[in-house]
């Protein structure tokens, strides 16, 4: 599947602006060293953004969006959509997330249920660095929310 080959660590490639396919599948010490450098570059770029948001946790983002971007109406952050599944808006009673993290389980779906096993395995390998970068971005998101909350007590 030619399209699947293009999905190798898309986020890391985007934020590092480096070619990844060869070093991602490479098993040499030099490939491992280059992976470290590319990941460091991608994380440095993401960290420079004034606003890093996590799609699953948008219910926690309105105050941050107002402070950083100056938006007043942040109601759209509570609208749930499921991108990449026919680009369809949800219509299953879970369209609004007013529960924060408590609502994530009901809104989540597992890729194993939607993808053939071979494609799921391949994508798991091809997007491994993206998973690490996404986890780092999630941590940035949470730290920025907590740091904003803590500063209110000064």
Summarize this, please?
The protein has helices at residues 2-5, 10-16, 21-25, 29-47, 62-69, 104-107, 117-126, 128-151. It is an all-alpha fold and 154 residues long.
How would you portray this structure in words?
- The chain is mainly alpha-helical.
- The protein is built from 8 helices and no strands.
- The protein has helices at residues 2-5, 10-16, 21-25, 29-47, 62-69, 104-107, 117-126, 128-151.
- 13% of the residues are buried.
Largest sheet: none
Low-confidence stretches: none
Average pLDDT over all residues: 77
Order of H and E elements:
HHHHHHHH
- Please count the helical segments: 8
Distance between the termini: 55 Å
Shape call: globular
Instruction: Please report the total strand number as a whole number.
Output: 0
Measured as a percent range, the helix fraction is: 40-55%
Topology:
Blueprint: H1 2-5, H2 10-16, H3 21-25, H4 29-47, H5 62-69, H6 104-107, H7 117-126, H8 128-151
Fill in the keyword field for this structure.
globular, mainly alpha, 53% helix, 154 residues
